[in-house]
Amino acid sequence: MRRTGAIRTGLFYLFIAAIVFESAFPLYYAVVTSLKTGTEIFHVDYWPPSFSLANYSTVLTQGEFPHNLLSSLLASTGVTVLALALAVTAAYALSRVSFRGRSLLLMTILAVSMFPQIAVLAGLFELIRFLHLFNTIWALVFSYLIFTLPFTVWVLTAFMRDLPIEIEEAAIVDGASPWIIVTKIFMPLLGPALVTTGLLAFIAAWNEFLFALTFTVSSTTRTVPVAIALLSGASAYEVPWGAIMAASVIVTAPLVALVLVFQRRIVSGLTAGGVKG
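Below the sequence we write its predicted structure tokens.
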């Protein structure tokens, strides 16, 4: 029995190690490649013979990449804040207020996220042009709400349903308005769910490519995924692979750090509503 248990444990850890290797190796190889220069980039080395920060210096000092970083930061932060503000109030109505068509409305919100981006691209482009938002950060914030808002509403609704009804009843007896209940009572209790939905919404907006490519045209307004995609040359040997890898590492590193810092709250938020008493 002990030998069988040891074998199972060893296979389990071997399986975990394989998953970690598959997930981390692409990022590791990107870091290694970003530290190479010249023809060394085309040599397969899992540990570079020499380290150089020239690619990082090129990315950060030449071109508009710092402006692209700022555009991505503003668009991702704006859509995250707006999505959370709308989702908290929507989740309160969908989880605490009884009205006809509540389930249908919740399913409709979920159905919106099922449409592929290309299916809504043409109509969204006409709407953004009509609102005079084309080639602005607000065009990205407005379009990113399509795939961030449904997820945040669903997660916060599931989390808010698990909050004790007695808390809300006590607040109502004390004369608290619905706005006070949401902002002063529920918001502090929604910490794990807010961190989860906010971080995942930020990551989704940070990595979005199609809307950013369509709704922005100037080099200073483009986001980092579009800026990286446009780093190209006439042939494969003229593509600045080192600069592309350096830019990819710069873009990815903050997201990895955020996930590692808030990983416990992410797990708590994603499992909200999974266990019923």
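Residues 209 and 225 are 6 Å apart (CA to CA).
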